[in-house]
Amino acid sequence: MILFEDALDLVLKHYRSTEKECVGFLDSAGRILAEDVFSDIDMPPFNKSAMDGFACRMIDIHNDLEIVETIAAGKFPEKSVGLNQCSRIMTGAKIPDGADCVLMVEHIENIEDNKIRFLKQSTNPNICYQAEDIKKGDIVLRKGTKIKPQHIAVMASVGCTKPMVAKKPVIGILSTGNEIVEPENVPGLSQIRNSNGYQLITQVERAGAIPYYQGIVRDSEEDTYMALTKAIENSDIVLLTGGVSMGDFDFVPEIMIKAGVDIKFEAVAVQPGKPTTFGVHHKALVFGLPGNPVSSYIQFELLVRPLILKMMGASSLYQTVKLPMDEDYTRRKSERLSWFPVIITDEGTVKPADYHGSAHIYSLPAADGITSIAIGKDIIKKGELVDVRQI
Ligand code: AMP
Ligand code: MG
After folding, report:
1. Strand partners of residue 340
2. Neighbours of ion ligand 2 (CB under 5 A)
3. From ligand 1's centre to the CA of 360, what distance in Å?
4. CB 73, CB 92: distance < 8 Å
5. Atom of ligand 1 nearest to the CA of 247
6. Strand 180-181 relative to strand 192-193, pairing
7. Which of 173, 240, 257, 175 is nearest to 210 (CA)?
8. This prediction's pTM
9. How far apart are the C-alpha atoms of 80 and 68, rounded to whole Å?
10. Could you identify the atom of ligand 1 that is nearest to the CA of residue 244?
11. Does ligand 1 come within 6 angstroms of the Cβ of 199?
């Protein structure tokens, strides 16, 4: 049995980078940027007014000012502003030559048809200066960024309409078990519905990869071998669930070896998910995840999701927030690192969710995240900070 931290290191060490592809920038949302994005212009591209008001010279602000022009956003100023002159200007419009400040419209009074007076003692320049945000040629988005709407805005502003992103890895999914039936069926007396397969399909999609669901595999060595070799041929990562425990029909690790997979670990000092198995084939990386739905879910989030992100070159593989416990949390045995589902309260504290163990499928939907308690530790005190990973 290896430590969870060593298991994660081993998994990440065996990553294989996916290729790059060029996509339309709107389709790049949720993808991982594969090349830096540079700006083709200064931002702002010219000195622009931050306010609706009157552009003039700072030295003239206590004098009556004659209005020489009205400059709407998008209009190129025709007149320069001289001694005791100003141009009426709108937010976003280019500052006319000669002017070095904008008086806010709220701070002036009209004294004649085309004359104004400033009512305050002083003013800020109220100008957004050319290139103060970004200079032409600057990197505006870094390779490895997960693309969100705010990144799409930056791409739009620098004309990057065809970014390079990492190709999505293909993740083969197999659900093993003679007792498993597909969800549309009513289970017989000794059967249960396949929840893991569908949970994994959506976890894979959420991680930014392509699920390749291959159905239910019977607990026979032959069926498992056939299904596994086919999955390895067609995927970058293969996920099997079930068949990794100590039962008479749990021969996933054995079949992995037969299929040419070099097993790196078969047991991890973690709870839930102790029998999680990982191995390397030259065609694909293979995980045997436990059959219990909570174990499968959590081990995917802890081991598989960071691997998928690393294969796509993501700069952040997981994010945690530190929050205080709302109450004492205790456990009886402490020989494994243990993860448990938690609820984040409106006050920003962390409460353990109702959780009866790895088969308790209803515990996760009620939870906001998972947190862990280290080996050798049997209590987390109220107020102690814990790392919460959102799920
Ligand atoms: P196993 O690791 O095959 O011994 O499975 C452990 C437990 O998880 C058993 O109770 C299985 O019935 C259950 N299980 C296995 N596969 C699935 C699945 N695809 N969906 C829901 N439960 C499963
Ligand atoms: Mg089984």
Report:
1. 371
2. 177, 242-243, 291
3. 12
4. yes
5. 4
6. parallel
7. 173
8. 0.92
9. 9
10. 2
11. no
